[in-house]
Structure prediction request, 109 residues.
Amino acid sequence: MYNDLRVLRDRQLAASDALDRSGGQDPYGSAAMCVITTTVETYPTVAATFYACNPELLTGTEAEGTAATFTVDTSTIIYAVNVGTAIPPSGTKLVIHAVGGRWAFRYDG
Prediction:
């Protein structure tokens, strides 16, 4: 696992360096994270609301056609707002993005 974390840190540093070299232009893109929706107390019944999520560490051999391995961190809760029109079922895998100090995703079913 140490090697996987080291690879992730190195990739983040490379991405940050690339954004820093943007020639004075505003940065584009945003931080993103793999998560899976979960229930803390009561699962939302409306689409446009915050959903509790657990982060997932994505690992596996990086080669075309190989399967990815997801490891869920059930001790950490992240709240992300759904800007879509449908309610994601509990246990839905999502990619969330940092937007204005909050995490957001779009789920339209």
About this structure: The two ends are 34 Å apart (CA to CA). Strands lie at 32-37, 50-59, 69-72, 78-82, 93-99, 102-105. Residues 2-20 form the longest helix (19 residues). DSSP finds one helix and six strands in the chain.
